[in-house]
Specification:
mainly beta, 4 helices, 11% helix
């Protein structure tokens, strides 16, 4: 079996993402590689092309109290542009006949393809979509080209066998959380930083404090990773500097300065408090990718960090609420 060197693999990855894959809604998504297996679905398909099957439907799997399946088209589904030269992959809700009228499910999902040589996964970054009775499947029409898939040395199709996977996370609607109050201050909040002399940074960089949603925050970046678990990766955390408990949706991005292939991560409805005030990604991106001048993330020894905080919601202190209720009940019976 042919071994692919790092430079060749980088060229393959650039071909995968330029032009970017096309979504069923004529949008595009970013791709990344990661080592961790998908949480919810992993399916091995043998005789992927030799069988002549136009569409694979996986068995149902559970994620977020709902049943799902993957729909995989080896020769494309030909619904968006010229898809016959690509593999199309979609996520579909399974057995929706028992759902109430006007049902909807909002989900963030990623689709995976296993590299059987490098033992890691090519995956789409989280795609947020609303699944409805009239539109119960979403996905990527041009997930990967057949040319790249069919080349055995790339690792995605070996002996006509490939492995696909999926992760699905449900986005809760605000209406289903009545105990929360939304503060419409300065959100959505967007901010950019330029970190100069990146190579001389050491391992730690921190932004100045900033206000978003009526609360104070800061970003911390560890250029060589935070701890052994993040070895060989850049680590980024968002720190909450307030005393109340708040729930926030936010996206952090390391911008690509030579193309639009930015590296971004999104967190949905994360709960911050004074005692648990940070959240982020230990393995935000590989150090080798970050420092490779050909990749465009560090240019002239500077990198660009972007954050968007789309919502901040205050969560009342349930302990103090309980005390108030107890005091009220006590007063009624005295």
């Amino acid at each position: 079996m042919k071994i692919v060197d790092n430079q060749t693999r980088a060229q393959i990855f650039e071909e995968l993402t330029m032009p970017p894959p096309t979504l069923a809604s004529d949008e595009y998504t970013s791709m990344e590689t990661r080592e961790a297996s998908p949480n919810h679905c992993l399916i091995k398909i043998e005789s992927f092309y030799n069988s002549g099957i136009e569409k694979y439907e996986t068995k149902e799997f559970w994620a977020g109290r709902y049943r799902w399946r993957l729909l995989i088209y080896p020769n494309g589904d030909n619904t968006v542009g010229e898809d016959r030269n690509c593999v199309s992959v979609y996520l579909a809700m399974a057995d929706t006949s028992s759902y109430p009228a006007n049902w909807e499910v909002n989900a963030v999902f990623s689709i995976f393809l296993f590299d059987q040589i490098s033992a890691n996964y090519l995956c789409s970054l989280g795609i947020t979509r609303r699944f409805l009775g009239m539109k119960s499947e979403w996905g990527i029409s041009k997930f990967i080209s057949k040319k790249i898939t069919s080349e055995t040395s790339n690792g995605y199709l070996v002996d006509d066998t490939c492995v696909f996977g999926a992760e699905v996370f449900i986005v809760k609607k605000e209406a289903s959380i009545p105990y929360m109050s939304l503060k419409n201050f300065d959100v959505p909040y967007k901010r950019d930083w330029k970190i100069q002399n990146f190579s001389k940074l050491g391992n730690f960089w921190s932004s100045e404090e900033f206000n978003a949603g009526g609360h104070k925050w800061k970003i911390c970046l560890y250029s060589k990773g935070d701890g052994k678990e993040a070895e060989n990766h850049v680590t980024i955390y968002l720190y909450y500097l307030g005393s109340e408990s708040v729930q926030a949706n936010y996206t952090i991005c390391i911008k690509n300065q030579v193309s639009d292939q930015h590296m971004k991560r999104t967190s949905i409805d994360h709960l911050f408090s004074a005692s648990d005030n940070s959240w982020g990604w230990g393995k935000f991106m590989e150090i080798a990718t970050m420092n490779n001048p050909k990749k465009g993330f560090v240019v002239n020894d500077s990198c660009l960090i972007h954050i968007e905080i789309s919502s901040v919601q205050v969560v009342p202190n349930t302990t103090s609420l309980g005390k108030k209720v107890c005091n009220l009940l006590t007063g009624l019976f005295l």
